[in-house]
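[Meeting: bench + compute handoff]

Bench side (C.D.) handed over the final construct sequence. Compute side (W.E.) agreed to return the predicted structure before the next meeting so the bench team could plan truncations. Sequence as handed over:
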Amino acid sequence: MEVLPVQNDKPSTVFIFGAGASYADGVPLQADILPQIIRDTDPQLKNSDTAKRLRRFLTEHFAQGEQEPSLEEVFGFIEFFIKNEISLSREWGVKELLEIKADFTKVVHYLISKNTKRSELFGKFWRKIAKIDPEVGVITTNYDTLADEAFDSIYPECLIDYCLDFVNFRHPEAGVPFDWWIDPKKPTENFNYKNVTRLKLIKLHGSLNWKYCTCCGQIALTPWQHEFNLKLNSFRSFMDAQVTECPFDGNRLSSLLQMPTHIKSNHNFIFSKLYDEASYLVGNAKQLVFIGYSFPEADVHIRALIRRCFSDDGKIIVINKSRAKDLKHRYEGLAKNVDYHEYTFERFVKSKVFDELLSANRVAGGI
């Protein structure tokens, strides 16, 4: 066993992923989620008590015109009453609204997880990074596990550092045989590689494969399990056993997802830590590469992070298929030097732009 040296702690290039990067692999955009809930064509959405209760709430309190409300609008509406501890109506008190918020989280988890599959596109992304320059950092605002599950294409030459502590790292002390997982910050095998690289993957808004105990604050990483079963109202599937209870206190584990609202509060120490880790990466980066990220209004905290931490001399590279002028304007308000490429994520991964970016980063890093 040996301790990996402090490495890749201040990468000069940081990739920041938005929903557009996952769309090619079938993960729905936020704008697609509410229509799916309301149409109830999916069997679990149609028949589960959780989805029925949520659908009734949406029907009662949001006009059913040609365009459904945004997730930000609905969550912001619910949060207003909860945070101010006032009832919406006789039927919908604070307790009921907290339950609706939990229902919403479960349904969002279900809809994203059922469309999450193994991504060859992210596999190509990781392999090219490992080949040309692994000294990068990655931040994602997505809940899906596309980037995580494709990472095994460069494992164990590279190890994921989620910048969090997991119950998995304490097995067998935890008493539950979680999927084996390496804590790259502690003594570990070198797998006969000369250089094992620790690569930070910060999932700023949480992840489908993180299970959270609201009692003791522990997080369980279930690397290959990201589903939520609405019919059973549980992480349990019909075929496979999944981790559903905290090994320390037996409390029922829940999703760890930060829902889209205009004002994000970091009262949960986990999201606070992730935000601090992202701030550290951005503050030391020379260039940020935004992929499929449209800067939605609910992500004002990310705009604040960039403005607060990113150097005035830094460069922003935008990879987005949108031609919208207001999108370009959002980025131009963050840095003087902005490069815009009208690419999809798939085109970018195959492009010379990606190769040259990594090669230049390698030279700048003195590798």
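W.E. noted at the follow-up: The mean pLDDT is 86. C.D. will use this when planning the next construct.
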